[in-house]
Amino acid sequence: MKLSTKGRYAVIAMIELALNDKKGLLPLAELSLSQNISISYLEQLFSKLRGAGLVAGVRGPRGGYRIAKQANEISIAEIVSTVDKSTNLILKEGTNEVANQIWSQLSSRIYNYLNDITLEEAIASNKVVNAEVIANDDDSVQVSPQVVEVNQASAA
């Protein structure tokens, strides 16, 4: 599996769509500004994502995109493979067969690893624990942990 800029940006975009799913449609212009990715590049990616049934779009002034499936039904490998069809790391024909075998096995392992991570799991792993530390008068310390999603907290 080849990990390209296309794949990275597609994963970033899909995570943003999943995070904003309850808010409704996400316009590409808004996604472009928040992630610093050009609209024309996003349009190319979303054309492929829409063709694969991963996103649904609505045209018009209030239009935008949303994920077309549940976040737990979409794997990171599916996103990457959709936008970057040349996912194989194998060298050109006629080159060292042992090297090709190593790259083929690596490609397979990367794919399997990313295929085991759903969009939902990727988002869930992006949580941090903020702890409020309170010093009491008796020199004891009270810690109050709060789980905060990084992307949503920074957007607020």
Automatic annotation (TrEMBL):
- Record's GO cellular component terms: cytosol
Pfam families the UniProt entry points to:
Rrf2
Supply the PROSITE patterns for this chain. HTH_RRF2_2
Per its UniProt record, what Gene3D superfamilies does this chain match? Winged helix-like DNA-binding domain superfamily/Winged helix DNA-binding domain
UniProt GO molecular function: DNA binding; DNA-binding transcription factor activity
UniProt-listed InterPro entries: Tscrpt_reg_Rrf2 (IPR000944), WH-like_DNA-bd_sf (IPR036388), WH_DNA-bd_sf (IPR036390)
Q: Which UniProt keywords apply?
A: DNA-binding
Query: Which ranges of the sequence are coiled-coil?
Result: none
- Spell out the NCBIfam families in the cross-references: rrf2_super
Name it: Iron-sulfur cluster regulator IscR
From which source organism is this entry?
Answer: hydrothermal vent metagenome
